[in-house]
Amino acid sequence: MPIRRLLLIAGALALVFAVTLLAGLRQGLLALLGLGFGAVLQACRFGFTTGWREYIERRNPHGLWAQLLLLALASSLMLPLLAKHSGELVGAVAPLTLSLVLGAFLFGAAMQLTDGCGSGTLYKAGAGSPLSVVVLPTFALGSFVGASHQPAWIALGGLPPVDLLRYGWPLALALTLGGCALVAIVTLPQARAAGPWPRRWVIGAVLLALLAALHLIVAGQPWGIVYGVGLWGAKAFAALGWNPAADPFWGVAPHAARLAEPIVYDVTSVTNFGLLYGAYAASRWRAPVTTRLPSARRLLVAATAGLVLGYSSRMAFGCNVGAFLGGVTSASLHGWVWFAMAFLGSILGVRLRRRLEAPARI
Amino acid sequence: MDDARWFRRATAIFWLAFTALVLLDALAIRTYRPEPPPIALGSGQAPGGGHCSGR
Question: Cys-Cys with A316: which of A6, A104, A114, A203 at CB 3.0–4.6 Å?
Answer without folding.
Answer: A104
